[in-house]
Amino acid sequence: MTPDYDALIIGAGFAGMYMLHRLRQKRFSARVVEAGSGVGGTWYWNRYPGARCDVESVQYSYQFSPELEQEWEWSERYATQPEILRYANHVADRFDLRRDIQFDTRVTGATFDEGGNCWIVETDKGDRIVARFVITAMGCLSSPNTPRIPGLEDFEGPIYHTGNWPHEGVDFSGKTVGVIGTGSSAIQSIPIIARQARHLTVFQRTANYTVPAHNRPLDPDYVRRVKADYGVLRRRARTKPAGIDFDINYASAIETPEAERTRIFEQRWAYGGLGFMASFQDLLLNDDSNKTAAEFVKAKIREVVKDPAVAEILAPRNIIGCKRLCVDTGYWETFNRPNVTLVDISNGPIERVTPTGLRAKGQDYEFDCLVLATGFDAMTGALLKVDFRGRGDLPLRDKWRDGPRTYLGLTVVGFPNLFTITGPGSPSVLTNMLPSIEQHVDWIADCLDAMRSRNQAVIEPLPEAEEEWAGEVGRSANITLRSTCSSWYVGANIPGKPRVFMPYIGGFPAYIERCEQVVAEGYKGFALA
Ligand code: NA7
């Protein structure tokens, strides 16, 4: 079988676009297949009101091209979805990527042909594409989770999922709206929906921690300073566990005297953003330290929310930072509005959706539109929607029945020549996605290059390497408090999904070092032929 391409890339978000660019630079032939009508991935689909990145824009950007870094102007500290999507489109144009992207096409299956050492890829448009390598760039939070609530199909009004928002936008003016969920997407959209809608009812199963963004227009002097030596910022970020240039305080929260501890929390609170979790180094390592941060945030909720009963419902019960910390603009304040009602469904699930609303804990709620801010089948959802068949026709679904296993988050035993950018077992979802993506893509491109120079056609991790990496992912998860709650990191939000902490939490620097070491030792842990 003659391959049509060296590599078939699935997805034209930030990972797929850079993968295409990198392979072209190395003179490989590559084709991208993308389900959407445009580039941008997450930022193409998640168009809900208030959608915004909670990593600062000067850091949430590509660093592979100094020219791109210099020419692009971010307008705000945290970029909005439309601005990030404009950036993605700019990148696609600037590097002339579109001519190798097939849009409006979903990959449905891919089978490894052991005789020909290539993948046969099928799409919903009836394509059959043969490629030596398949590289998935489908994102970690890209398979929307629509909970199976009885009666959902009977609702007479429109239903919107935050992760698949209508491109023409939605105007809630004069409408009554119900929102299910209080994760990051809900926390970003609720303040804006509340301003538009006649009435908003929020159904909260688990209260979440959020810190203020303190978003603002970017100061041109600050941008000039960053751009004068962007590399300094990027290199510093690479030394931090999350790949974000936070100022980490290496003291222990519980060992710091209370007055000093509060001063530090206040300072971080006033600065805003995810760096709050770097107030002390042990917030996710020590229960007592964690409690100090949790109590600080709960006191803030009580300060802001006027009705003590509502403040009590909004106060999270679990560990701060265990579920992904949210970053907001005016979230708690929203619950002081007369047109907003908070319904606590923590002690009784929604019984059913009715034609005109929903029924929970024996009470009926009515609204014109329903917003599902119910998240994603994270990390494995998108991968398992494709019917991947490896050696011996083994389905990836079967291989991962008890939870995903990979070597370095990038490769899977039994699935030769398949690379999974930001796959389970990679640190990407716990880091700034962009530098993680670039690191993964560079590693894969260098690997293909090395194989070509040695005339090798097949790469596959060894079972013992995969086993060892799964152990490493598990061990590092067990050290932190992050693996202890029912989050999407452990698949807890999807009924029936195996409970495994999926990302590698050992930190971005340790991961980079490991990937580099594997290469230095001649692709240790891989069989190459
Ligand atoms: P999340 O963070 O997974 O939030 C989903 C929310 O939806 C969360 O509050 C869930 O409650 C709630 N949910 C899900 N299913 C139900 C049902 N059946 N009934 C009631 N409530 C439900 O998704 P987001 O889109 O907000 O954010 C995903 C990531 O994107 C985020 O972490 C950032 O990295 C960006 P639960 O907590 O499960 O009780």
Could you outline the blueprint of secondary structure elements for this entry?
Blueprint: E1 5-10, H1 14-25, E2 30-33, H2 42-45, H3 66-71, H4 81-94, E3 101-102, E4 107-113, E5 118-123, E6 128-136, E7 159-161, E8 176-180, H5 184-196, E9 199-204, E10 210-212, H6 220-228, H7 230-238, H8 258-271, H9 287-304, H10 308-314, E11 326-328, H11 331-334, E12 340-344, E13 350-354, E14 357-360, E15 363-366, E16 369-372, H12 381-385, E17 387-389, H13 396-399, E18 418-420, H14 433-453, E19 459-461, H15 463-479, H16 508-520, E20 526-528
Parallel strand pairs: 1-2, 1-6, 2-3, 4-17, 6-18, 7-16, 8-9, 8-16, 9-12, 10-11
Antiparallel strand pairs: 4-5, 5-6, 13-14, 14-15, 19-20
Helix pairs in contact: 1-14, 14-16
Question: Outline of this structure?
Answer:
The protein is an alpha/beta fold and 529 residues long. The protein has helices at 14-25, 42-45, 66-71, 81-94, 184-196, 220-228, 230-238, 258-271, 287-304, 308-314, 331-334, 381-385, 396-399, 433-453, 463-479, 508-520, and strands spanning 5-10, 30-33, 101-102, 107-113, 118-123, 128-136, 159-161, 176-180, 199-204, 210-212, 326-328, 340-344, 350-354, 357-360, 363-366, 369-372, 387-389, 418-420, 459-461, 526-528. It has 16 helices and 20 strands.
What does this structure look like?
The chain has helices spanning 14-25, 42-45, 66-71, 81-94, 184-196, 220-228, 230-238, 258-271, 287-304, 308-314, 331-334, 381-385, 396-399, 433-453, 463-479, 508-520, and strands at residues 5-10, 30-33, 101-102, 107-113, 118-123, 128-136, 159-161, 176-180, 199-204, 210-212, 326-328, 340-344, 350-354, 357-360, 363-366, 369-372, 387-389, 418-420, 459-461, 526-528. The protein is built from 16 helices and 20 strands. With 529 residues, the protein is an alpha/beta fold. Strand 8, helix 5 and strand 9 form a beta-alpha-beta unit. The strands form five sheets. Strands 1, 2, 3, 4, 5, 6, 17 and 18 form an eight-stranded mixed sheet that branches. A five-stranded parallel sheet has the order 7-16-8-9-12, with helices on one face. The protein has a three-stranded antiparallel sheet with strand order 13-14-15, with no helix packed on it. The mean pLDDT is 97. Helices cover 32% and strands 17% of the residues. The longest helix has 21 residues, at 433-453. Helix 1 (14-25) packs parallel to helix 14 (433-453) and helix 14 (433-453) runs parallel beside helix 16. The protein has two domains: 5-143 and 377-528, FAD/NAD(P)-binding domain; 152-372, no CATH class. The structure holds ligand NA7. Ligand NA7 binds next to helix 5.
